[in-house]
Amino acid sequence: MKLRYNVRVYPSASQRNSLAEAFGCARVVWNDALRIRRDAYAKGLPRPTAAELSKRVLTEAKTTLERAWLSEVSSVVLQQSLRDLETAYGNFSASRNGTRKGPRLGPPRMKKKTARQAIRFTANARWSITESGRLRLPKIGDVEVRWSRELPAQPSSVTIVKDPSGRYFASFVVEAEDQRLPELDTEETDTGIDLGLSSYAVLRGRKIASPKFFRRQERKLRRAQRAVSRKQKGSNNRRKAKQAVARIHARIADRRRDFIEQETMRIVRESQAVYAEDLNVKGMANRRGRLGKSVHDQSLSRFVRTLKAKCARYGRTFVTVDRWFPSTRLCSRCGRLTGPKGREGLRVRVWTCTECGTCHDRDKNAEANLRAAGRKLVAQMRQEAERQNACGGHVRPRKPRQRSSKQEPTRSRPVHDGQAGGSHSHSRG
Length: 429
Known about the structure:
Shape: globular
Distance between the termini: 66 Å
Strand content: 15-25%
Number of helices: 11
Largest sheet: 7 strands, antiparallel
Oligomer: single chain
Radius of gyration: 29 Å
């Protein structure tokens, strides 16, 4: 399993200038290669290969006066920018053909100088970590690193990222082995997870309160954005005011990320099996109007993705229940759909079943239903796995059945012009 470890780096003033040059060169190489591909497509010419783009954008461009400064940065950074462009075109083609999951992607666009910038160094760049703990990068130097933990293995690449708030990070890609946790009793430790807004998540036996990181910083963010609007465009004061806004956003994102990491790790340690519902978070944000900001503040999709990845790494069972499963309206005791429905039903937090008379807490009842549905899905998956193991493929291929001479031969249908031999339609007249 490939993992990514992010650590904070503190480049000096000269190193920040070198990184700025590397960011700009990578952006120029991307734009030049994209322009060549667009021109070839407009003229109906064949698509230039990666080798042709590298030759024209890097090798030949460095010999000209307009692009001679490309030699001042590491060539690996420029090559990785071309690879990113190829990956972007590959994702666009896969999305257009329907072989890529997720929302449809458009073609790559020209890059502009934005607040967030990044470059990547692979093993070919010969970067290293010194004995003193500094990160040695080609044509940049030894950068100070604030290590929070040791890397489990030798990283394959490192990406230097500058975020909008002006901070620098080093992102290492490491190939790590799965860490299996001690197995627990599934019947006693499995849990369903009902995600929502009033409570962040309802689990078996406990609730996770909504942290509301964005809502708590909304007033401070409003004042900072008002200060930006009062500064003259293009001035140094406006740049500082925009960085103040970016720092508030970065603080909110860091707190939310830390909260998700801690809660998902606690769930993985306490539960042997986890059953979560497949939520359409984007649809929830668009449908609920004013609550859209609160839906995005919860970051429920990131929570589910992180939990799924950790369950796979630590040997836990993770099952997703269909989003159309009526977990809130279904009585967990008698199994009847007697709960409140519609938009007005969302406001009802406690309801009584009209069939069996059981009083339900909306969230706890949904968690119990998700747990029962998850157990059924796990049982079906195990039965399917056992059936495939017991009824595996044939060792020897079967011989085709031979018709006896006494049997009447089958009559073939007439084949008409423009029709296949197996077609059931006939021409008239």
